[in-house]
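Standup, Tuesday
Yesterday: got the pipeline producing structure tokens again.
Today: sanity-check two examples.
Blockers: none.

Example 1:
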Amino acid sequence: MPEEIKLNTEFITLGQFLKLAEVIQTGGMAKWFLSEHKIIINGEQDQRRGRKLRTGDKVQIAGFGEFVITE
């Protein structure tokens, strides 16, 4: 079962999401992490740090698990 990540805003960027989900410790690690790991968002690979994630989006990170964005 995917881990739920709750939002209190309309959207969150992929870089911010990685920190919120505790995949990385600092926002500065996002660029490196995205270049080194395969990330699937709603069935499509996407490595853009600024990609907007909204409620209902599903994020899969190889080796870290599955996450779903909730309100």
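Example 2:
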Amino acid sequence: MDDRKLQPLIREIRSQNGRRFAEAAYFFVLEALDFTIFLQGKGQAPTESRHINGRELLDGIRRYAQEEFGPLAPFAFRSWGVTRTEDFGALVFQMCEAGLLNRAENDHPRDFANGFDFEQAFLDPTPMREAARRGPVKEEA
């Protein structure tokens, strides 16, 4: 769906939920869902439909955030009012209640609890990899 068509609906969702999260958080979750569906769909027939559960979506959110923001992901999340993975569940279920997303009968907000640690999940491993390639540091006499 076009962002221009989504924006009024997301504004209404925010209004109904006390504007707890920034608009960007809703758009990010929708983009991360598309990303997750794409990753999950690799190797599946194009007509095959598959539900993405909370844990799978959290993994997709983490992976998408790593690609989009790298180690700055926690800062982006906090600027949107998202401070823990449970907040992603709140965003998803707000969009479900508004009819923007569908949920399965066994989907629950608790599926998003304790998904990953924001600080640890987005540490930049590049310096560690480069140091490992160089080998141990030699002390000069």
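Quick observation on example 2: The mean pLDDT is 86. Residues 23-41 form the longest helix (19 residues).
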